[in-house]
Amino acid sequence: xxxxxxxxxxxxxxxxxxxxxxxDGWQEETIIDLDDKPSIEMEAEVIPVSYGFLDVKDFYxxxxxxxxxxxxGRKDCPNVILADLTTGEILASTLFYGNxxxxxxxxxxxxxxxxxxxxxxxxxxxxxxxPRELLTAGSDYSPSMILDYSDLYTPFIIPLDSGxxxxxxxxxxxxxxxxxxxxxxxxxxxxxxxxxxxxxEFGPFKYDPYNVNQGYIIPSSENDRIVFIHxxxxxxxxxxxxxxxxxxxxxxxxLPARYAVNEDGGIAFSKDGIPxxxxxxxxxxxxxxxxxxxxxxxDYSSMKSTIIRMDFDGHALMSFTCPVFxxxxxxxxDGTIYGKGYDQDxxxxxxxxxxxxx
Length: 358
Prior knowledge:
The chain is mainly beta.
């Protein structure tokens, strides 16, 4: 009976959401079933020093003792601060707010293999920051601006390797079978090197789904895989390192999305709600963790997250059920999870998540 239920859910998801990467041709299409995987109930406590960073956009933790603060952007305030996790003492900072060299305006961030990447989407620049080097060098540290992507229209970009090749998410890759909204067949992402002519890569399009079509691309050269997780739809896509389709994964729950189209072809979510699916990731070596919310946007204090550990083939290995919502998060060697979230007053905080005591 259980298998029939999940087959029904999978079929319904396909009907509601359509395909996400142009042509069909997945080697395997499946769903995530967390019920038959180990699951750990987590309990949450606030790290007190996090209340000292009210401009925070993202929190990360390095080596279980250093707090990495990525700020929203404010005059005379660094975009990146390192602080002692226990005392809150400022240890180092870099990338101030502004228009000058080594300054950034509006940022989003992600961490991969201990490196912090800062995307200044206002100036179309991608920075690479090594927190350990920053701790050592202090004020002498200069972040590396690794790409000026002014010629790209993309919600997400990430280095594929150290050779200057990047993976660029294509926002025009979009189809919704329920509404009939569809761009012609284009790929989920493409490979880019500075100076490439990208006009053909984005493909033909009728609609601009940028605001509803976002996610994270996570490459692993060691595993010959590229994983894409969708921010709004319960979907994961697995490719090999050349971009060939391997697995298309639905779930672990239904999360229908409804859209509205304006006169210019721009797409927005309808008033029915903004779905939150896979909202962040943590990656270190062969360990991949993804943060699944599976809810519609409301007060953050009433939302919750499930952290799923998986391999780079998209197989779920275990899950961690959190009593709170987290966005950016870090996983320590002992299994402790630190995640940025909000307390009951919607104040941004850093949660420490550990297995609940029986």
